[in-house]
Design goal:
This protein is α/β, with parallel strands linked by helices. Helix content is about 40%, strand content about 20%.
Length: about 400
């Protein structure tokens, strides 16, 4: 289970948005549907997920109907606020969305589409564990309107998968990707590097295996040790080594070079796509600060600068909705300084970067130093934008500190 929810102001029990919220319906709108179920909890995972023994008071078979109740609430709330608009992107994340029957995912998508509509050419993504994808599942999802599947590959090396507590077999990644492609879905594969015991050769083998699948998109994330996870406890007890920052940097550079040679172009620090059209539009909506409603326990939402988050446990979530109450646990409206910090943090990570004039005036003089240090592309800076070099991507957090401190 994830850590505690953030502190914030109490959320209204009816979910109503503030009357003075400056909603702009020209801003793209997305939906995130959280499926909080997993067969086994991976040792590194800090997401709000639950195995069957942790559910107490909630049933997986009831989940689709419960989430559809929140969709009805969102339709009412957004309608009252004049904020209804079609969804540009939809993302089923988790957890393991494909632990639920594909028909349940289809029902939730149908309910959301009925409530809000889908923009023309909308992107609809389902995350999937390789062991849960069959041709029948992929066809059902495609027939329901899903356009894209994100397959949790993580690694092609068995001992690395074991270190991450991943239970799928490497060969099942191939069959899952083939099923998705045969159903007409675009495919992304997710990788993690820097696991305990993973060598540079192991990582290169995973990259080659991912490229051999010929996906449209590849994500590669450095392993982060989150407090409260099994892996954090193992490291604290000295049972496994702490990830090596220098090795992770080498792995990133190898990934960027190999993926570029394989026809992939980076568009965010941890994401590569074959073409701009194959980038994850849903994730770009987050990074660009669009509006979204997060459905499900622990899900976060954003609307015109207002943020709120749902209660964490599926049982508490279901109880709120059964009582015709909003499942929101708290809300906040960050001040201008906080919004500026967040915008720099997010936009600096994507290829297009951020306009220099969006950086606080007193920090703009630091851009020259970032160029001198090889962190920011000089040609882009001349054009008025801050765009990270390869070295800058490796030190993205340091760049943000320079631009915001």
């Amino acid at each position: 289970m994830a850590g505690p929810l953030p502190l914030g102001d109490p959320a209204p029990s009816d979910g109503r948005l503030p009357a003075d919220l400056p909603v702009d319906t020209r801003v793209p709108f997305s939906a995130y549907l959280h499926i909080p179920f997993c067969t086994v909890r991976c040792g590194y995972c800090d997401f709000n997920t639950y195995t069957s023994t942790e559910l107490r008071g909630a049933k997986q078979e009831d989940y689709a109907s419960t989430l559809i109740s929140e969709i009805a609430l969102a339709h009412r709330v957004l309608g009252e606020a004049g904020a209804l608009r079609p969804m540009d992107t939809v993302f089923f994340g988790g957890g393991t969305p494909t632990l639920l029957p594909a028909g349940d995912l289809a029902r939730m998508l149908e309910a959301a589409t009925t409530a809000f509509g889908l923009a023309e050419g909308a992107e609809v993504t389902v995350e999937a564990n390789p062991d849960t994808v069959t041709p029948a599942v992929a066809r059902t999802l495609a027939d329901a309107g899903v356009t894209r599947m994100s397959v949790g590959m993580q690694s092609a090396v068995p001992h690395v998968l074991a270190a991450l507590d991943r239970t799928h077999r490497p060969e099942n990644v191939r069959t899952a990707v083939a099923a998705a492609k045969d159903a007409g879905l675009a495919v992304s594969v997710d990788l993690i590097y820097g696991a305990p015991g993973e060598s540079l050769a192991d990582w290169e083998a995973s990259l080659e295996a991912a490229l051999a699948l010929e996906p449209d998109h590849i994500s590669a994330y450095a392993l982060i040790i989150e407090d409260g996870t099994k892996l954090a406890r193992q490291i604290r007890r000295g049972e496994v080594p702490t990830p090596d920052d220098d090795l992770q940097a080498d792995m990133y550079e190898v990934a960027d070079a190999r993926l570029a040679a394989g026809g992939f172009d980076w568009y965010e620090v941890s994401n590569w796509a074959r073409t701009p059209a194959q980038r994850s539009r849903h994730n770009l909506a987050y990074w660009r600060g669009s509006d979204w409603w997060g459905f499900g326990p622990g899900a976060h939402s954003h609307m015109a600068g207002l943020r709120w988050w749902n209660v964490k446990h599926p049982a508490a979530y279901a109880q709120r909705l059964a009582a015709s109450e909003s499942p929101a646990a708290g809300t906040e409206r960050p001040d201008a300084e906080s919004r500026t910090l967040e915008r720099i943090l997010l936009l600096s990570r994507i290829r297009e970067g951020i306009a220099i004039d969006e950086v606080p005036l007193e920090n703009r003089k630091r851009v020259a130093g970032l160029i001198a240090d090889g962190l920011v592309d000089p040609a882009s800076a001349i054009q008025g934008r801050i765009q990270l070099t390869l070295r800058g991507r490796l030190l993205a957090d340091a760049v943000v500190r320079e631009l915001t401190d």
